[in-house]
Amino acid sequence: MSSVIDDQGGEDVVAKAKRDRAEKRGPFGRFALFIRQVLNELSKVVTPTRRELITYTLVVLVFVIIMMAIVSGLDIVFGWLVSFVFGDGSAVLGQ
Fold first, then answer.
1. What are the phi and psi torsion angles at 88 (to 5°)?
2. Which one-letter DSSP state was computed for residue 87?
3. Average pLDDT of span 29-44
4. How far apart are CA 17 and CA 12, in angstroms?
5. Which residues fall within 8 angstroms of residue 48, CB to CB, at 6 or more apart?
6. N or C terminus: fewer CB in 10 A for the chain?
7. pLDDT digits 0-9 by tens, 61-77
8. Alpha helices in the chain (DSSP H)
C-alpha cells in the first residue's frame, strides 16, 4: 500500500499540507494557497473522449427516463388510491 502512495507522491502532499497549515498566513496568503490547490486538482482532471462523453450522456438520459416512468406510475397509482379512499369512487369505477 505504501508503494501506491509513493508512486503518486501522496506523502509529499500530506507533508506539504502540514507545513502550510503550520505557517500563519494572512487572508491573501490563504486565498493564494486555495487557488494553487484548486489549480493543482484541476490539472489532475482527465477529460473524457467524445465516445465516452456520448456514452455517459446516454446512460444518464436512459436513467432519467426510467426514473420519470417510475415516479409517474407511482403518482398515477397513489392518485387512484386517494380518489378511491377519499373520493366518491367514480374515478375507480369509471362512472
1. -90, 0
2. S
3. 91
4. 8
5. 56
6. N
7. 999 999 999 999 999 99
8. 2-8, 10-22, 27-43, 50-86, 90-93
